[in-house]
Amino acid sequence: MLAKAKEYFKKGAFEQAIQEIDATLASGEHQIENYLIKAKSLVKLEQHAAGLGVLDDVINLHPTNAQLYGERAVVFFLMKQQGEAISDLNKAVELDPDNPYRYASRGFIHERLGNDNEAALDYEKALQLDPEDAITHNNLGLLHEKMGRKDKAKKHYKKADNLDPKRKKKHNVPPKSEKDKEVEAASVKEQKQQAQVKKQAEPTKQTKLSGTTYLKTLFSIFSNQQEMKSFLEFIKNGFKQK
């Protein structure tokens, strides 16, 4: 039933997804992902309070899961409950202090709330833990530029460009979750394998393959949310609608 619910969600059939999840929960299957799919579906239907209630329930069952606090923080943010949003992001950092995504996501929300100094500290901490995160370099560059720190902004823009040569436009985007990175790595691996098969099938064709295969764009992370991708999806919708 979970697989069917995920398929419904992917197709945008959110009410059907909720029905499938309700049946799954009624059968005694209380995995975290069931609650997340239901919460995401409710938020997609703009039933934010109901989505928040689902996240409250699953947090009561799993009070030490950092991801859940990050998910709930975004719903709080969309509901303009800013204090609660930051509180949940703080809790996520407390529970998962070695994960750069926790700091990058909190920094992103801080920046959206106008807390520029706090955002800068979080972005810097995220980059200490993961110096190769192009999105956070980009976002910190934008923040420095906004704060009048042009030299620092250029440094981070340059780093972001080096990490992602196909980046065409600088714009503030939510950080990629650990799951996003797994999906990107899998996609890169698959594309490399396909390129190798094609090369072997056309031995006479003189084609120079790039040393690194990239996704269509680093910043297309809203297209297929998984795990913490709901975080990015909620933010995207909130900025469009709020």
3D architecture notes:
- This protein has 242 residues and is mainly alpha-helical.
- The protein has two domains: 62 residues; 178 residues, Serine Threonine Protein Phosphatase 5, Tetratricopeptide repeat (Alpha Horseshoe), CATH 1.25.40.10.
- Helices cover 69% and strands 0% of the residues.
- The protein contains twelve helices and no strands.
- Helix 3 runs antiparallel to helix 4 and helix 7 packs antiparallel against helix 8.
- It is elongated, with a radius of gyration of 20 Å.
- The C terminus is likely disordered.
Q: Notable features of this structure?
A:
Serine Threonine Protein Phosphatase 5, Tetratricopeptide repeat; 12 helices; mainly alpha; single chain; disordered C terminus; elongated; 242 residues
Shape: elongated
How much beta, percentage-wise?
A: under 5%
Give me the Rg, rounded.
20 Å
Q: CATH architecture of the largest domain, please?
A: Alpha Horseshoe
Largest sheet: none
Enumerate how many helices there are, as a single number: 12
Quote the CATH topology of the largest domain: Serine Threonine Protein Phosphatase 5, Tetratricopeptide repeat
Overall residue-averaged pLDDT value: 78
Question: Alpha-carbon distance between the termini?
Answer: 33 Å
Q: How many individual domains?
A: 2
**Unreliable residue runs:** 201-242
In total, the number of strands is: 0
Q: Report the CATH C-level class of the largest domain.
A: Mainly Alpha
How would you summarize the topology of this molecule?
Blueprint lengths: L1 H10 L2 H13 L5 H13 L3 H14 L4 H13 L3 H14 L4 H13 L3 H14 L4 H13 L3 H14 L14 H24 L27 H13 L1
Helix pairs in contact: 1-2, 1-3, 2-3, 3-4, 4-5, 5-6, 5-12, 6-7, 7-8, 8-9, 9-10
